[in-house]
von Willebrand factor type A domain-containing protein
Amino acid sequence: MSVLLAAAPVTVAQAQPATCGEVEIVAFSDTGETLDRIIGTAGVTVHRVTHPPIASTDFFNGNEALFDSVEHSRFLGGEYLRQRYEECGSAGTRFILAGHSQGVLAAREVALDVPAAWIAGVFGVGDPAQKAGARGVTGGGADGNGLHRQRVGKDDGTASSDPFYDLPVPVFLFCHDDDPVCAGTPSPDLGPHFGYGEAPEERQELALRLRDLVEAAPAPLPDPGPADLMFAIDTTGSMTPFLAAAAASAESTADALRALSSKARVGLVEYRDHGGGRAARTVVPLTEDFAAFESGLRGLRADDGGDTPEAVHFGLVTALGADWDRGAARALIVLGDGPAHDPEPVTGLTAAALTDIARGVAPLPGGAASARTVTGPGTGVRIPPVPVYALAANDSLSAQMGPITTATGGAVFPIKTSDEVGKSVVRVIEDATTAPAAGLRAAATVLAGTRTTLSGLGSSRAGDATFAFDFDDDGAIDRSGLDATATHTYPAPGGTKARLVVTDRRGRSSEAVVDVEVRAPDSLDRADPRPSASTGDLTFTAATGVGCVLLGCGILLLVTARRRGRQ
């Protein structure tokens, strides 16, 4: 197995590995030798970059500089992983995030930000956010809660850093029994915190555990996002063979969706024409119950008709009123063999109006055009944009649907015989599930007045997409571009929401909203766990002008211990 180790570039362009390894190690560490000696013994190399240091008091007193530094490393590390995954993801490359001390905080955040399929494991020593006895935590100090976890802890005994342990990735986090940073012991001695791997036996053991993590990296997880597909099917008399083909392909439709989406829902609408009965109705609302969908398909009966055009627009508007998931890949598939009224009698719907509704530009109509599913968003509400696809067994319908599908990011699939229905549906599903699915995450702890990162790196199928961030979910986009992460400073404590809209080059979009709990800096437990100067015999001095050589400055970049009365 090939292994590479790299860190994100900061201020200057850095040479990237020429080849793509099966597993690449990204290191978040301090200026010391702590992580270096473990990695060196494991037989891998490191790509170095520099960062400014923070003072030791900024960590032990819980000052904002620590949070700002971690967010800086999180931002750079996440963007580096995104760039590297775009280069090597197709080759199956995944990443082990390794860190010491403050570097573990950055590694944890990045592991939560990106899709789990990118991560082969997390390796760390001296984790300040350690949870006693949690998965992957080992060493003599494994039964202690880290200093940072104590600081960001909640009254119910949980901490904002805890969701990390729920990630479906291998974790190895080692803590010395007398390390005050990860074990949370009130000791003035930082030697154990910087002494990981100093003893040859321990160094060899930790190096082997890192090597084991690399060699035992599990197969990549699939990375599909959710998908919502609504079908609008013409059930006039001439559709009999096409209905039979659609019902016969129900199982292959379900299989195709399950293979391409982690959470797929399907729904069904039938339409005919105005006059002589209901022009359109919802047969099956969006559901994960594929058996109900198949039953609905098999229950369709071709009847009436005998003339054209049909109430195609009304059928599509009925389907567009479904309870769409804004974070899912979405598609509306129309199957018909007759052209549409344009404008439509009774409803007055036109192709232009339908297009604007599907694009989310215009709201769902009221009045005679307001047939919707009972769980849908309601009259006057703008739905999330929905690409429209047409399986058209009629040249006039193909021509009419062309501008609509192009404007919404869908496509037309002309079909000549019922035998083409099954294959065409699968082709539509394969295309529709390439649309982006937005994923947004805020930092575990957000402090008022301190820069934080909003990460869209968890978005699926977003390689060529634009990321638009609304920091306070007020409907106005605050930042937009190709970067999947954005930094923002919330000025005051309180609860708010942030929103992300991911849009690909075809105009297909997805949204994600996340709660952001902004805490006041004085809400943190700022008590220094070390004995005071009157009870201890050590003082601590942080060196100045020392740069971090790896992504993510260490919590104490260079600390000297000086006994009183000695020079």
Q: What stands out?
A: Residues 1-15, 48-52, 368-377, 530-567 have pLDDT under 50 and may be disordered. The first strand starts at residue 3 and ends at 6. Residues 64-88 form the longest helix (25 residues).
